[in-house]
Amino acid sequence: MSKIIVIGGGPSGMMAALQASKNNHQVTLIERNGELGRKLKFTGGGRCNITNNRDIEDFFEKIVNNRKFLYSSLYSFTNRDLLDYFSNNNLEYKVEIDNDYKVYTKNDKSIEVIEALNKDLIQNKVKVLYNKKVVDIIVEECENYNLPTVKGVVLENGDKLFCDKVIVSTGGMSYSHTGSDGSMYKILNKYNHTINKIYPALTPLTIKESWVKNLQGISIKQVEISCKIKNKKISKVGDILFAHFGITGPVVLIMSSYINKVLENQDIALKIDFLPQITEEEISKAIRENPNKNVLNNIKSLLPQNFLKEIFNILSLSDKKANELSKSDELKIIKYIKSMELTCNGTKGINTSMVTSGGVSVKEINSSNLESKLIKNLFLTGEVIDVDAETGGYNLQIAFSTGYLAGISV
């Protein structure tokens, strides 16, 4: 039996603590808040998007950074394994097939996930220390190893807790009010771990064009957003919501994860097709369908009226009967619907991002067991590592899977 300390009581840390305890280790879980899973409460808009029901092989195309590093973690503890775990712990869930196969609790309550994990922690005799912040780790040279070895942690009040192994599950820097303020990055960097630059991921985007604020509150389903970065086209489909600062919504959040690094140095031209499933010819036919009716009336079933009216304003067009609309004006309308161009000049920042891009370099972590290559008996899981994925339950699955792998490896 070894003494294990897990730092951080999020999904990754709780799963790591559970698996280590089930392997007959003496486990202490240190949480800086007065409760476990504080950030988990907010996921999926409070509904908790536990995972995704796609085949695990399909997860990798949804991972934005360092997907190969996650092979061992995701195959060691798949989404099926995770759902079986929750079923065995009396948590009911549902798969929303029409919502990208996202998995939620049956009652749409994230607290049920936390309660299931917490109950299991109690049953497996994991000791939880609440309201305790780790400000350092204890690392010593060891004659038995070529590497320095972790021996424990130092708490904010100066107390030292000694152990055989440490699992770091402290998260990134997004939602910092929940406790993930990035302070662990500084500690790990002090012991020579490379911390790749932090960027906001899954975050709203700011738009340069001032007229966008006139579209505030308008949401449109299943649009296609695309851009070119280094001659490579990036294209994503999903729902969009206009805001006073720019754009947000699922497809925008996903796009942000692919362009966040480039935005640091330059603006990016985004092209939006608001009707990717309909051709230009079909839109033209809709515009002309009833010659004696106004254009806006003819196409009101395709897009929201207030959105179409704003397009007319932008193009300096007045609504008129279809038979009075010139061909050139028709083409202008169609072009704006099929290829509106917006200039993205930034993101809303790390405090509004759902996850963190960047963190501890995967080059310094053994992917087969998540042990540090620089410090013996130190393991890292979840968002503290430089891995992130698209929205849809993939990031939570990464947290649970890496936590599981570290827990069975200590």
Automatic annotation (TrEMBL):
Names of required cofactors: FAD
Keywords attached to this entry: FAD, Flavoprotein
Domain of life: Bacteria
Pfam families documented for this protein: HI0933_like, HI0933_like_1st
InterPro entries in the record: BaiN-like (IPR004792), BaiN-like_dom_sf (IPR023166), FAD/NAD-bd_sf (IPR036188), RsdA/BaiN/AoA(So)-like_dom (IPR055178), RsdA/BaiN/AoA(So)_Rossmann (IPR057661)
Gene3D superfamilies documented for this protein: FAD/NAD(P)-binding domain (3.50.50.60), HI0933 insert domain-like (1.10.8.260), Translation factors (2.40.30.10)
Domain RsdA/BaiN/AoA(So)-like insert residues, every copy: 199-355
Domain RsdA/BaiN/AoA(So)-like Rossmann fold-like: from-to ranges: 3-407
PANTHER family referenced in this protein's UniProt entry, alphabetically: OS12G0638800 PROTEIN
Protein name in the entry: Flavoprotein, HI0933 family
Originating species: Asaccharospora irregularis DSM 2635
